[in-house]
Design a protein that fits this description.
The protein has helices at about 1-25, 30-40, 45-55, 60-85, 85-105, 115-135, 165-200, 270-275, 305-315, 340-345, and strands at about 255-260, 265-270, 280-285, 295-305, 325-330, 335-340, 350-355, 360, 370-375, 385-395, 415-420, 425-430, 430-440, 445-455, 460, 460-465, 475-480, 485-495, 515-520. With about 525 residues, the protein is α+β, with helices and mostly antiparallel strands. The chain has a 5-stranded mixed β-sheet. Strands 3, 4, 7, 8 and 9 form a 5-stranded antiparallel β-sheet that branches. It has a 5-stranded mixed β-sheet with strand order 12-19-18-14-15, with no helix packed on it. Residues about 140-145 and about 150-160 have low confidence and may be disordered.
């Protein structure tokens, strides 16, 4: 028991000091964050996609809790080892610190200082373990079974007696100091991000030179169970690898544009960027990890500078006009790289360096102060958040982050339709039921949505008004539901007349395909619903 407690307390002390050291430097260098990032990098694609399906946007929380559980298990094991062989336990502690340091150094844009939090934390943990174990094993006069003090204070069983009171006081002292250090780390981290928070609070969105027209009347069908046409910022999906959301100070932010074919390299601050014409555009974003019928799509009104115009200002020509670069590599402040076709961002579509989202400055979680938004491309090849660099190169010369992990270099968004209501396995009443949802085919638009029941004839749904080819469209179909189990399917036709394929494929390497299917049960007239069924 003493060994396990010693190991846990020593680990807590080491982590607290490591967190303080990271807060004083780079928060991304803390052991838990660094190891978590390395785990994300090394996780096979299939396992990562499984985690996203199972945990959704809580996958980062689950990963963090898993790492802490692993640290606790290692701490208990190390503490038990220390009771028998203290030098070996201290060596193990040092080895774990080295693992954290190597993980920190493996992160993009890492420097040697990023290894310090893990190494300092390991040193503190080793010292705490030594003090706790020696205090716990400090011998005191013990009485043998014959009533005599055993030589050297060792009981007849051969194990040194524990000074429980002294050990307990030391445990409490370590925990109290660790709590103070942890609080200090939290306050230091908050102070470090205070400038970023203040800069966002001061930031006033510029008036658009080209405002977006009002959302057409009838675009939002207001069917219960279907979300609003414009997704509120707090409900917008978030899928990325950042275990700690970067908090970038808008006052010190800079963007560098350089690379092949750039005749006039640019380095801009936020004020200089926004001195250019600012436009507003409604765009639906979709994550490539979105399975058929999945939730990782959202629609927002974005405000920003046209990326194509900025590249032309830097002297860039698209490949179709003889430019040498066919890939634009965007880099985030946390080192994430995303590769986008140069042709796509310069073909006239509303590719933006966005600063606003639904009339507000970008939330930190969605890329404040500047992010990329490119309609028609999955996020992993277009939607770099916390943007700091744009480099022109070729697809042959460089593979961005996700391409090195089995995803395709280029990925246009595939036509999808989703049933939002009724929900899967819902229990329904007979009669008219609104089957409704959304469909998207960004940069091509949606021309038609059809629904069928139990493999029967396809029936055309009523579409909400179109807000352009870059946004989703809501749809609804009135169904006269009859008693019994039923299977609902939906498919869409895009603006070019191409019908959505019914062939089911997974998300890797360039997005899922297939028709969304929902199974429901319509109860007979007068029958009650089974326990747990939804009443719709």
């Amino acid at each position: 028991m003493m060994g396990a407690v010693s190991g846990i307390v020593a680990a807590v002390a080491g982590l607290a000091v490591a967190q303080l050291a990271a807060a004083a430097g780079r928060p991304e260098a803390s052991p838990v964050t660094a190891v978590g990032g390395a785990v994300v990098d090394l996780t096979p694609v299939a396992v990562r996609e499984w985690a996203i399906r199972l945990f959704g946007t809580s996958d980062k929380l689950v990963l963090g809790l898993g790492i802490l559980a692993a640290v606790a298990a290692c701490a208990v094991g190390t503490g038990l080892l220390a009771v028998r062989h203290l030098p070996a336990a201290i060596a193990v502690t040092g080895g774990l610190g080295l693992v954290g340091a190597l993980a920190a150094l493996s992160r993009p844009d890492a420097s040697w200082q990023d290894a310090l939090p893990s190494l300092v934390g390991a040193a503190v943990s080793a010292g705490a373990l030594y003090l706790l174990i020696t205090a716990g094993q400090r011998s005191r006069p013990a009485v043998t079974s014959q009533g005599r003090a055993s030589p050297g204070g060792t009981p007849a069983g051969g194990a040194p007696a524990m000074d429980r009171r002294g050990f307990g006081r030391l445990v409490v002292a370590f925990l109290a100091v660790s709590a103070g250090v942890g609080l200090g780390a939290r306050r230091l981290g908050a102070h470090g991000s205070a400038d970023a928070t203040a800069s966002r609070a001061r930031f006033v969105l510029p008036r658009p030179t080209v405002p977006a027209p009002p959302v057409p009347a009838g675009a939002d069908l207001k069917v219960p169970g279907v979300g609003p046409f414009l997704t509120p910022n707090q409900d917008f999906y978030r899928v990325d690898t950042a275990l700690v959301v970067p908090r970038v100070d808008a006052d010190t932010w800079r963007l560098r544009i350089h690379g092949e074919g750039v005749t006039r390299p640019l380095t801009l601050d936020l004020r200089e960027l926004l001195a250019r014409p600012v436009v507003e555009h409604d765009i639906t974003l979709t994550c490539v990890s979105n399975e058929v019928g999945g939730p990782y799509a959202g629609n927002a009104r974005w405000l920003g500078v046209r990326l194509g115009d900025l590249l032309r200002e830097a002297g860039v020509r698209p490949p179709s006009r003889g430019g040498p670069a066919d890939q634009l590599v965007a880099r985030s402040v946390d080192g994430m790289t995303i590769g986008t076709p140069v042709e796509a961002v310069m073909d006239g579509r509303a590719a933006l360096l966005a600063v606003g989202m639904n009339g507000r400055p970008l939330p930190f979680a969605h890329g404040f102060p500047v992010r990329m938004v490119v309609p028609g491309l999955y996020g992993y090849v277009s939607a770099c958040k916390w943007l700091t660099e744009l480099r022109l190169t070729t697809f042959a010369a460089y593979d961005a982050y996700w391409v090195r992990r089995s995803w395709a270099q280029q990925a246009a968004i595939k036509t999808q339709a989703r049933i939002d209501t009724p929900r899967p396995y819902a229990g329904l009443s007979p009669g008219r039921v609104a089957v409704a949802g959304v469909a998207w085919a960004q940069h091509r638009g949606i021309e038609r949505v059809e629904v069928r029941v139990d493999g029967g004839a396809w029936q055309e749904a009523r579409l909400g008004a179109s807000d352009g080819v870059d946004t989703w469209r809501q749809w609804v179909w009135p169904w006269e539901a009859t008693p019994g189990p039923h299977t609902l399917e939906v498919r869409a036709t895009d603006g070019t007349g191409a019908l959505q394929t019914g062939t089911r494929t997974g998300t890797v390497p360039d997005g899922a395909t297939g028709w969304h299917t929902v199974n429901v049960n319509v109860r007979a007239l007068g029958a009650g619903l089974p326990a747990g069924a939804d009443r719709q």
